[in-house]
Amino acid sequence: MAEIRLPKVEQGQTKIRNVPIAVTPEGFWCCPSPVGFQKTLKSQKPLNKPKPSSPPPQVTAHKKQIPVTEKKPMTTPIKPTATYGDQRTFTPVNHGISAPVVPERVLRPKVEHVPRNVAIEYGEPGTSDMKVILLGKQGFCVKLSVHKKVLMEHSCFFTDKLSGQEPGLSCLEIDDCEDVESYVETVGLMYCKEMKQRLIKQSVSRVLRILKVAELLGFNSCIQSCLEYLEAVPWVGEEEEDKVVSSVLRLQGEGIGVTPVLKRISSNVTNPPNDTISHIMELVLKSNEERGRREMKSVVLKLLRENNSLPSYGGPADVCNETVYTLSRSCLDSLLSLFKQAVELEPSDKSMDRREPVVKQIALEADNLSWLLEILADRQSADEFALMWASQQELATLHSKLPIVSRHHVSCITARLFVGIGKGELLPAKDTRQLLLQTWLQPLINDYNWLQHGCRSFDRKVVEEGIGRTILTLPLEDQQSILLTWLGSFLKAGDNCPNLQRAFEVWWRRTFIRPYSDAQGNVPQSDSAMASKQQD
User: Fold this and answer.
1) d(C-alpha 23, C-alpha 95), whole Å
2) What is the pLDDT of residue 270?
3) Are residues 134 and 20 in contact, defined by beta-carbon separation less than 8 angstroms?
4) Per DSSP, which regions of 11-78 are E strands?
5) CB 358 within 8 A of CB 338
6) What pTM, to 2 d.p., does this model score?
7) Which domains does the chain carry?
8) Torsions phi, psi of 167, nearest 5?
9) Residue 161 pLDDT
């Protein structure tokens, strides 16, 4: 039973309001919300609205008097509830004349005038032998009627406070309670035999609040029950997980065993993380299920980008890059082998059944290489990949021997490298850039029409800008050689060829305009210098 009393309760008709606080048979106090006290006090409404007497109106002679029936006042049994002092109700006076009673507007009491003292009793009523007074913020006070023996059996804090005091001590105050509700709940748990059953319906945030109070009170059995709860219950969202981990780590710093809870976020496995990442990548690369492979590539790429954003992730970066390059070389060897098989099978008209699986594998390996290149580009480590790809002269030669439907996936890798160089995502050496253009620009031009219409992710403007910027990073003589070769292809193919007019204009100005403008720019300077000397 819960008894909540407030002082200044006077005789007479009193407003009675059931406060939403309950004590279980075992003494556990249940608060409906973390601010149950404040909401209760602010939302008080009187049950019996007062009807003060009004002056009797004048009665004319031709009207009959109507007898007024007196109503007996209703008696309400007073149970263990909260009563509020200085709030009286008045019964209207009967003058024996029928007159309409006009109730006056009742003003609600201000919140600051409402008493903020609440009393709670644990265990059997009338058996408590001491009181614990919790003084919270804003003058809020909770008086707990408790049993000294129960508190000393469960709490080191109360043991220290009460053991050295006089036997007749019957009151203990705890000042500056940040969370009065959690104190009340935690003390109530000292009266429970099965704390886990009491915690099972609570939220994680509420259990964390109880855990904090239990830690302050030295309530070890409650701490253990809270840890068991946190170890079993799901943590929803990163914010909740961070709160749990911070609370548990605080306990760990005080020497309390919290290993079962922390095992959810840490591991004692001897394999380094990079071995696990390598295994995950291998599983994704070897998958033949298109949808699952595509989704997991997106997920892994996103998670690796999150790792790259961490300032402390620079240590194992080199090891991870080695893993990606090892997988890239394996995919390149597989792609070259598949190209050779496709070239051998292509002349035969009876080999359609054998050629189709090879074509699918070519597309798969090209997609794998594009994914690995994307990972390296995010890590600013794709320079070596550009050199590996530029050195694939044999693969580029076989490229022209296959139909475009079988080979165009490879040109996506070339396009991505040009885009990366154009955006500054990778900075290969001059010889690597020149070799890349010599080896793969013409195959890309040959597949350009198909890429525009058969590849959804292909962005023509971005690719053309990347190719042009890559060309313009070379010496002027190399720019001229590559752009004149492109000009011949563009005049024949038109829209089926990359439009490098911007790069062509830049090269033109560098070649034919800048030398003369620079020479003429020196003349005004010399003339102005001479003019200034003459003035002096």
Assistant:
1) 48
2) 54
3) no
4) 14-17, 22-23, 29-30
5) yes
6) 0.65
7) 117-263 (3.30.710.10), 317-513 (no CATH)
8) -60, -25
9) 84
